[in-house]
Amino acid sequence: MWGLGKPQSKLGKFISKHGYTIQDLSEASKVNRNTLGKVCSDKNYIPSQKTMQKILKAIRKLDPNAKMSDFWDM
């Protein structure tokens, strides 16, 4: 399995756990893949409110109970 040992944010761990890739999430959320790469690897990066909403809408297809606070400290 590749990617072992790479730093991951809560969102990165969530999509890995569910077997999704950054590319899959990018297509589902319509958020740029480079932005998602940063969101999934940098624990301190907080995207804009609009980007968070797009990501959360796509994540809720996997877990309807997901909340923003599950992935970002507000």
Keywords:
Cro/C1-type_HTH, 0% strand, 4 helices, XRE family transcriptional regulator, 74 residues, mainly alpha, Lambda_DNA-bd_dom_sf
Any chance you could write out the topology, listing elements then pairs?
Blueprint lengths: L9 H8 L4 H8 L3 H9 L7 H11 L15
Helix pairs in contact: 2-3, 2-4
Question: Outline of this structure?
Answer:
This protein is mainly α and 74 residues long. 49% of the residues lie in helices and 0% in strands.
Give structural notes.
The chain has a single domain, classed as Orthogonal Bundle (434 Repressor (Amino-terminal Domain)), CATH 1.10.260. Helix content is 49%, strand content 0%. The protein has four helices and no strands. The chain has helices spanning 10-17, 22-29, 33-41, 49-59. α2 (22-29) crosses α3 (33-41) and α2 (22-29) packs across α4 (49-59). The longest helix has 11 residues, at 49-59. It is globular, with a radius of gyration of 11 Å. It comes from Cytobacillus oceanisediminis. InterPro entries: Cro/C1-type_HTH, Lambda_DNA-bd_dom_sf.
* Helix proportion range: 40-55%
**Number of H- or I-type helical stretches:** 4
- Whole-number mean pLDDT: 90
- How many β-strands, per DSSP? 0
CATH architecture verdict: Orthogonal Bundle
**Percentage of β-strand residues:** under 5%
Q: What's the CATH C level?
A: Mainly Alpha
CATH topology: 434 Repressor (Amino-terminal Domain)
Q: Main β-sheet: number of strands, strand sense, barrel status?
A: none
Radius of gyration from the CA trace? 11 Å
**N-to-C terminal Cα separation, in Å?**
32 Å
Low-confidence parts:
none
**What's the structural domain tally?**
1
Structural class: mainly alpha
Shape category: globular
N-to-C series of helices and strands: HHHH
